[in-house]
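TL;DR need structure tokens for one chain.
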Amino acid sequence: MGAPEGFEFTVRGDAVLVTHHGARAATLRGATARQFLDDVEREDPQQLMARLTGSYRRGNERVAREHPRNVGGRR
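>> reply
TL;DR here they are.
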């Protein structure tokens, strides 16, 4: 349930490569790349990259897994 971590980005020409723990997570090009570079100056870079790549958790996974409806072999 912590903050996103492990994201990095590299600018290569007109593209921005986003990696998560060393694995490529997204490649941004054109207007999307320019918007990302503008936003990364104003926002938390880790949170921004997590949102862009969809690699973030909502924080309720553990709670849902432990709910009585999801425990006890019924699936």
